[in-house]
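User: tokens in, sequence out, please.
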């Protein structure tokens, strides 16, 4: 699970780097994926230590939950702006949607992993 957190942290940082390379105009929303990717990457590295894995992966899942909620709310507000006829920056929306999808995927994978670990611990054997 630690390696998965590292991969998702790097993917979130890559989304930011791609957005920065595409345009010269810099917007705060372009940096949101990196703000969630770096702590997730750090949790993945800390989780490589077996004694700290449980806490690090739960913190990474909490970061992913915050990323999902933040990105989802930003996307929802942007959708309302579009429906009212207000122009929205499409690159910023693509970055936010990519962050939301990546954080949601990591959250689902981590919840499945937590459930499997708990089942393994509870089964006698």
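Assistant: Sequence out:
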């Amino acid at each position: 699970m630690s390696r998965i957190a590292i991969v998702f942290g790097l993917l979130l940082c890559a989304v930011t780097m791609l957005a920065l390379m595409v345009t010269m105009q810099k917007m705060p929303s372009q940096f949101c994926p990196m703000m969630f990717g770096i702590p997730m990457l750090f949790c993945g590295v800390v989780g490589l230590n077996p004694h700290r894995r449980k806490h690090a992966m739960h913190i990474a899942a909490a970061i992913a939950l915050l990323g999902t909620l933040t990105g989802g709310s930003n996307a929802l507000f942007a959708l309302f702006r579009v429906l009212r006829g207000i122009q929205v920056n499409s690159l910023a929306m693509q970055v936010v949607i990519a962050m939301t999808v990546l954080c949601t995927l990591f959250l689902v994978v981590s919840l499945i992993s937590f459930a499997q670990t708990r089942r393994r611990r509870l089964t006698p054997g």
